[in-house]
Amino acid sequence: EKAKWPKETVQLWEQLSKKEANDLHTIQKSIVHHVTTTLARAAYNMDNFSAYQAVALSTRDRLISRWNETQGQLSKADPKRVYYLSLEFLLGRSMDNALLNMGLKGVYSQGVEQLGFNMEDVIESEVDAALGNGGLGRLAACYMDSLATLDYPAWGYGLRYNYGIFQQRIVDGYQTEYPDYWLNFDNPWELPRLDISIPIGFGGHVQTTQDEYGVTRHNWIPANSVQAIAYDVPIPGYGTENCNNIRLWRSKPTRVFDLTSFNEGNYEKSVEDATQAEKITSVLYPNDNTMAGKELRLKQQYFWTAASLYDIMRRFKKSMREWSDFPDQVAIQLNDTHPTLAIVELQRLLVDEEMLSWDDAWDIVTRTFAFTNHTVLPEAMEKWSVPMFEYLLPRHLQIIFDINLFFLQKVEKKFPNDRGLLNRMSIIEEAQPQQIRMAHLAVVGSHKVNGVAALHSDLIKKTIFHDFVDYYGEEKFVNKTNGITPRRWLHQANPQLSALITETLGNDRWLKELSQLRGLDKKVENAEFRKKWTAIKRLNKVRLAELIKTRCDVEVSPDALFDIQVKRIHEYKRQFMNILYVIHRYRTIKSMTAAQKASVQPRVVVFGGKAAPGYYIAKLVIKLINSVAAVVNQDPAVGDLLKVVFVPDYNVSVAEIIVPASDISQHISTAGTEASGTSNMKFVLNGGLIIGTMDGANIEILEEIGEDNIFIFGCLADEVEDLRHAQRYRNVPMDPALQGVISAIERGTFDDPKIYQPLISTLTVGKDFYLISADFASYIAANQQVDAAYKDQEEWAKKSIRCTANMGKFSSDRAVKEYADQIWNIKPISVVDEGYLQA
Ligand code: CJB
């Protein structure tokens, strides 16, 4: 269009689309403008929430300008892009982060305060975007922040759920779930693209024909279809003009489809079908590290991957390149097996619709995709029943069987006559009914497979993907240790510490180059600096104490040692072991004389995290924690020596308060079960020490910060199988201290003991799969070391500083660079501030 316009028109557009200025007055005007027009409110008649809405809308204007500029310049440059496919993006709040990343927090705060509001209160009015369960979803959010900050051309693709992860309330000590209808007051952080509407088919049958050259052609005729509508979420980088995008899809009924039923005279059915269509993106499945196998979940996966691929291919087609160039323009990262259908869908589109040969198409597919595995837990492995799959996606099933056949033929060629091997490696599990193993499909369809920490990447090569390593060779299987964004997890969550670091290092370059934190090491011996450091920790503890008072109605002293375990509740994460130790500690204190008590280190033990609604044992752990808290917190014999709290509804914004306030945090999974963990990194980055097992990223944290600054206990990953074997077959007695604790529960010290029988059975009848008894003695010892170390506050402060100073490796910037260089083969492109928007 622009080319056809006369020069004056083009100039007029350029002049009128000059970007908003960012001075105080312009910003205040824009806030008030949104108050009086967008919100239609009187300027003075406002509460914190409407102030938040107006500030959010004003911030969003600036985000969208950057977004537009970035996407316009990228369209012209047309570089290779990466697409990060994730069913979860656990973003949390956006406003504070957007303002900090764009460098506008100061001026906005000033503007807001002058308008009569407190910026903190305004920020806290925002509800979290909680479109994720835990680590996997938050990792995707951290990676989006780093990709934007490092100027990588990257888009995320996900689903726009109407309901995020449920809200947790504690009633009578039990978890109860409430729907998280987060869109109630509209979402200023998204841009609806109602014009981008993609038809997605389901069901039906496959038509097979011969084309004019005698080649067999397959044509999928779906029985029905829904529309995918795009919602764009801008992701601003820190200290750059670059602004990336997360495109989230929402399902809507297709009008054409409605009319078919309608024309058949079945009005009610057509409305009913329309409701079914909307259901697809209604709710995030609340399972973490487990697979539920629900049909609607499979629909979600196909809906999302098909819409995303359609969009990606449409963008590629604009460049008029050959299909063989596709992998040079497009990298697609599969965040776990959830988007594995994208492999099949791309093969289908290339073969059935673009008429490529099977082999040419498959070459393109496998050069495009790479796959991240996040867990080795068997209950988390995605499998889909073949009959259900065939009913929803008949053509895709044929393609999967073909992929499998061609793959197994090659395996047979390389390792002849090994039927056991073919059985183990097959994408199809021969069960009743047959099951599709999504992890196998993801490995076969990708050019790189990665684990998320060194130990985990090693383990997957030895266990679930062992045969595949033998077949493909080592090079296909790589490690990409997880990382976290220092912008949210230090700069935003811990502003005082961030300011102290910047002041100490003389600049804020560490925010983009985290290894600069090493410079703090020099300050360890400086008593004045340690005093400042410790004072900030204390302020953060006061802030958490206030949250605990509000949410749990328990008073805790910020002078006690704050001991924190916040993460999803799961047997492998062993919150159970933690609370059993708390009981042990309680019993020990109770048995002490007053003189002995005087030397006990006071502790506040904080728990937080959600259990999957159907995870009975995990929910009993929550109940036990709350029952122990009820008894301990009101026991005058204990007083301030021990407090126990369960903070309800743990989420990203609560984490931002909890993480900076820890003295010690617990990362105590049975060795070999936690793929990486990322909250461990957040705590240590904020100068909190950790107590942990030799599992996941704990091992690499230990390597970076040194063994004097971390409390390690428990068995090693390669000892686990022998220990399990011994417990099963050799009548190993339960650890005596643990036995004492269990007896106390069984005597009814903490509510009716009958409640806990199924939980206790996991240690006895269940043969203690997660090895709580085997690790208990060393866990007690490690806790004693923590107490002893904390007594020397000066030494503790030194450890704390050394922790932060040596966490450079765990920036998600490092992780994302490794992916970009070694897997995606993409380069950064910096966005130039042209001062106006491209017409
Ligand atoms: N993870 O959060 C999930 N959900 C799953 O279903 C499987 C794994 C977690 O992913 C994180 C990011 O890689 C890891 O740090 C964590 O160990 C793992 O449990």
From TrEMBL:
Top-level taxon in the UniProt lineage: Eukaryota
EC number: 2.4.1.1
Protein name (record): Alpha-1,4 glucan phosphorylase
Cofactor: pyridoxal 5'-phosphate
Role summary: Allosteric enzyme that catalyzes the rate-limiting step in glycogen catabolism, the phosphorolytic cleavage of glycogen to produce glucose-1-phosphate, and plays a central role in maintaining cellular and organismal glucose homeostasis.
CDD domains assigned: GT35_Glycogen_Phosphorylase
Modified residues (N6-(pyridoxal phosphate)lysine): 682
Recorded GO MF terms: glycogen phosphorylase activity; pyridoxal phosphate binding
Classification via NCBIfam families: P_ylase
Family note: Belongs to the glycogen phosphorylase family.
Catalyzed reaction equations: [(1->4)-alpha-D-glucosyl](n) + phosphate = [(1->4)-alpha-D-glucosyl](n-1) + alpha-D-glucose 1-phosphate
GO annotation terms (biological process): glycogen catabolic process
A Gene Ontology term for the protein's cellular component: cytoplasm
Source organism: Dissophora globulifera
Xref: PROSITE patterns: PHOSPHORYLASE (PS00102)
Alphabetic keyword roster: Allosteric enzyme, Carbohydrate metabolism, Glycosyltransferase, Pyridoxal phosphate, Transferase
Pfam family for this entry, one: Phosphorylase
Gene assigned in the entry: GPH1
